[in-house]
């Protein structure tokens, strides 16, 4: 069930380098949920869950096996999850957006009833509160009937990516080439869903 307020959940902590946005086929220890203590599991359940499928443990395993293994020379096993939680709590993205009056809205019968926001509005609001470093945002589009002549997509903010240095202690600029899925039309306005992901690089 979706909350009545805007909430960003964790998508993951993705190791990357200058030539690739993510690493694949990394070698490392397999995920084992039994190595997590109850306090860590509780913290993850409130912040790191798959809002589409509702299977948090499987989501953690998928993210760790694909990305956590790539950082095991920096964050060992459960430290990967603890570090991601700490980075997630550094900035309350929902609160930052709300401060600039960028808020989720209920479904409307017509496009004209939505209050929409530009890419620049969203990114500038976040960047001004997260150290001035650039962020990447991702969107998805959903078609809504416009008229008998066709339909026009409503574009939702789906994910915010914050980028960090290797140790995960300092923010850095994100690669501008990664902001791709919001560029259906640069001037196309966006709306904000009740739940979205935050990804940490």
Automatic annotation (TrEMBL):
CC terms in the record's Gene Ontology section: extracellular region
Pfam families: Ribonuclease_T2 (PF00445)
MF (Gene Ontology): ribonuclease T2 activity; RNA binding
Gene3D superfamilies: Ribonuclease T2-like
Stored InterPro entries: RNase_T2-like, RNase_T2-like_sf, RNase_T2_His_AS_1
Family assignment from sequence similarity: Belongs to the RNase T2 family.
Protein function: Self-incompatibility (SI) is the inherited ability of a flowering plant to prevent self-fertilization by discriminating between self and non-self pollen during pollination. In many species, self-incompatibility is controlled by the single, multiallelic locus S.
Record's protein name: Uncharacterized protein
């Amino acid at each position: 069930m979706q909350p009545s307020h805007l909430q960003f959940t964790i998508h993951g902590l993705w190791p990357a380098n200058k030539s690739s946005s993510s690493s694949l086929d990394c070698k490392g220890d397999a995920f084992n949920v039994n190595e997590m203590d109850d306090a860590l599991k509780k913290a993850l359940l409130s912040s790191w869950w798959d809002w589409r499928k509702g299977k948090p443990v499987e989501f953690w395993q998928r993210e760790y096996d694909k990305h956590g293994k790539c950082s095991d020379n920096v964050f060992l096993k459960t430290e990967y999850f603890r570090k991601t939680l700490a980075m997630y709590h550094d900035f309350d993205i929902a609160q930052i957006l709300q401060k600039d009056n960028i808020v989720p809205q209920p479904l409307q019968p017509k496009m004209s009833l939505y209050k929409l926001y530009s890419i620049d509005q969203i990114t500038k609001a976040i960047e001004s509160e997260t150290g001035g470093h650039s962020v990447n945002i991702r969107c998805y589009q959903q078609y809504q009937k416009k008229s008998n002549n066709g339909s026009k997509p409503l574009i939702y903010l789906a994910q915010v990516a914050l980028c960090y240095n290797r140790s995960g202690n300092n923010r850095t600029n994100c690669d501008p080439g990664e902001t791709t899925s919001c560029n259906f039309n640069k001037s196309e306005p966006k709306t904000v869903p009740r739940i979205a992901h935050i990804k940490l690089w």
